[in-house]
Amino acid sequence: MAYFENVNQIKFEGPASTNPFAFKFYNPEEKIGGKTMEEYLRFGVAYWHTFVADGSDPFGAGTMIRPWDKYTGMDLAKARVEAAFEFFEKLGVPYFCFHDVDIAPEGSNLRETYQNLDTIVSMIKDYMKDSKTKLLWNTANNFTNPRFTHGAASSSNADIFAYSAAKVKKGLEIGKELGAENYVFWGGREGYETLLNTDLKLELDNLGRFYHMAVDYAKEIGFDAQFLIEPKPKEPTTHQYDFDVASGYAFLQKYGLQDHFKFNIEANHATLAGHTFEHELRYARINGMLGSVDANQGDTLLGWDTDEFPTDLYSTTLAMYEIIKNGGLGRGGLNFDAKVRRGSFDPEDLFHAHIAGMDSFAIGFKVAQKLVDDKVLDNVVEDRYQTYTEGIGLDIVEGRTDFHKLEDHALNLTEIKNKSGRTEKIKATINQYLLNAYAGK
After folding, report:
1. Which of 55, 212, 263, 441 sees the fewest Cβ atoms within 10 Å?
2. What angle do CA 297, 36, 307 make, to 5 degrees?
3. pLDDT tens digit sequence for 311-369
């Protein structure tokens, strides 16, 4: 059965195309910096938003019209697999991602849940044999079911800790079976609502223990995927333990996990943490911890995770600048953890949304590569910090001074001159590069 009968293979037609089912800027075969766009950008489709989400929100019921929704239970799960691989093929995307409950319904107990997962995983594995689309990462949903009301690995209930471990154990086994390149830990409820009833130290210690057990089991079964932590500051909890990259990195260092994990950074989560997307990417990059990206954007006028498809070209450009400076994403990718708006309910809208996101990152990639090649920002930074390349500045950087010498230097200063940061000029230059990219210059 075809679920997207009105859509053919999505192809690159260039900026002049008026075909809504064509890429205008994303040319998977075009080489930039020695790699094709497809190889470098490594786009992925989020199973949960694309094939499971129904458009409901806290104020209204679902609106999405999906041809597979006429089924229920395991029949629905099987239909979603069929629809997913049709979608992957027509979009030409190299990767997809999922939570365990996205692909198979939970049973009346954990054993039955395992059985449901085994059935669907076997089906996905068969589809993958004839598909170019691979599994970028999978994860366990340890946050939706009411049992996780007090958390999962950080729960106040030891039985829930054990239940969560069992789900992750199964997830690691599934990841190995399907050849996942990464495995993600998103602590949706690993946090607290109030400190008044929380043993903060015990919860953090238990979270550290949980991650060590996951590392040990992955080694035991020979699953060599890259482990990723996905920071988010709040929502659903008041305060989540992986607030942002900085707090997540401190956590990993404290519990001796920094050599086993990197970060999966989501743009909308950065917004909620009070950071820019590029800030989180850079903090991870300069610490050697940038692993993968959940590509979306948030609405700065709203205080929650809106998970919109990325269309802000300034943001995609600065994001790709960090990714290029990182030498790419390695085993990671750009997963569209994004959903169509509630009013965009037709199946075809799923294609329009992904095309928009892929084109936006393609433009960002081309502009960022040009900025890197021309050393636009490198030259700005080098000039601004020039005083640290000689004299007392070089002594500071190389550890050859102390407060006595610095005081002597300061006392002998007759005049201190600062250079302008020229922020407006820099932004105008980036705008120029963006417009030149559109013009093909």
Report:
1. 441
2. 10
3. 999 999 999 999 999 999 999 999 999 999 999 999 999 999 999 999 999 999 999 99
374's CB contacts (< 8 A; 6+ apart) are: none
Query: Which of 96, 88, 102, 98 has its CA nearest to residue 131?
Result: 88
Q: Give pairs for 223-226: CB < 8 Å, separation 24+.
A: 223/172, 223/173, 223/175, 223/176, 223/183, 225/137, 225/175, 225/176, 225/180, 225/181, 225/182, 225/183, 225/331, 226/181, 226/182, 226/183, 226/262, 226/291, 226/292, 226/330, 226/331, 226/332
Cα–Cα distances in angstroms (integers) from residue 161 to residues 99, 201, 235, 317, in the given order: 18, 16, 21, 41
d(CA 204, CA 89): 42
Q: Is 102 a catalytic residue?
A: yes
> How far is the C-alpha of 89 from the C-alpha of 86, rounded, in Å?
5
- CA dist., res. 417 & res. 122, Å (int): 68
Q: What gap in Å lies between CA 212 and CA 96, rounded to an integer?
A: 26
Active-site annotation holder among 49, 100, 102, 337? 102
Is there a cis peptide before residue 146, judged by omega within 30 degrees of 0? no
Contacts of 195 (CB under 8 A, 6+ apart): none
Scanning 12-96, the segments in alpha helix (DSSP H) are 37-41, 47, 73-91
Cβ atoms of 338 and 293 closer than 8 Å: no
Q: Which of 99, 269, 275, 354 is catalytic?
A: 99
Positive or negative torsion for Cα 186, 318, 309, 334:
negative
Summarised one tens digit per residue, pLDDT across range 399-440 is 999 999 999 999 999 999 999 999 999 999 999 999 998 776
Q: Which helix (H) or strand (E) holds 226?
A: strand 226-229
Helix axes 348-373, 73-91, angle to 10 degrees: 40
